[in-house]
Design goal:
Elements (H helix, E strand, L loop, with lengths): L8 E4 L5 E5 L1 H9 L3 E6 L5 E4 L1 H4 L10 E4 L2 E4 L3 E4 L7 E2 L5 H7 L16 E5 L14 E5 H7 L21 E2 L19
Parallel strand pairs: 1-7
Antiparallel strand pairs: 1-2, 3-4, 3-7, 5-6, 8-11, 9-10
């Protein structure tokens, strides 16, 4: 994968709140069309917005990623600011076994027992064989042995009762969902 197509640029809104992650290619387009400015960051004490015209003349430092162009090398920004965008979009966490486990507090929703991750699995309250869907409202975290006993039956058919009605989690500001798997140091200044 090319360095231009990896999502390695953090996008901030005009209030400097994290709102997205983009590729360098997308960041360059945003900067060149004056939708965003790059941030020149040299530690917490030196953060300076830089226009595209100035950005393409910045020197490449040892820690910087750079791309080669016909004009020479251009530093890849790590953080840009969308100059006319103030919102912080909201988003619901992606539906996954981990998200269900976290929503349910690692607790079997039938017995109330707190489980280690390997002790539980997903249970379809209404089994798939009976038309149950993969939705927040139909999935719960269950002890493996309880789930096996329940099999493809409804909870009431095997004497089980849910501790609470499963619901979709509230939407969260996307800034809480942005991760930094590459460990980009400059991002740590803007992510919680």
């Amino acid at each position: 994968m090319s360095a231009l197509t990896k999502a390695t640029v953090l996008v901030l809104n005009r209030n400097w709140q994290a709102i997205h992650v983009r590729t360098p290619q997308e960041a360059f387009c945003m900067m060149a069309t004056q939708v965003a400015t790059g941030l020149e960051i040299e530690g917490e004490g030196h953060i300076r917005p830089v226009t595209w015209t100035e950005w393409i003349t910045l020197p490449i430092r040892d820690q910087d990623e750079a791309v080669h162009t016909v004009r020479g090398q251009i530093r890849v920004p790590t953080v840009i600011v969308a100059v006319n965008y103030a919102k912080v979009p909201k988003k619901r966490p992606k539906l996954s076994a981990r998200a269900i486990r976290e929503r349910d507090g690692n607790r079997c929703q039938y017995t109330g027992r707190v489980l280690r991750p390997e002790e539980g699995n997903l249970d379809h309250v209404i089994p798939r064989s009976r038309g149950g869907q993969d939705t927040w409202e139909n999935l719960v975290w269950s002890a493996r042995e309880v789930n096996q006993r329940k099999a493809d039956r409804l909870p009431r058919e095997v004497g089980l009762k849910l501790l609470s009605v499963p619901r979709a989690p509230k939407e969260l500001p996307v800034s809480l969902l942005i991760r930094n798997p590459a460990g980009i140091g400059d991002w740590k200044l803007f992510l919680a």
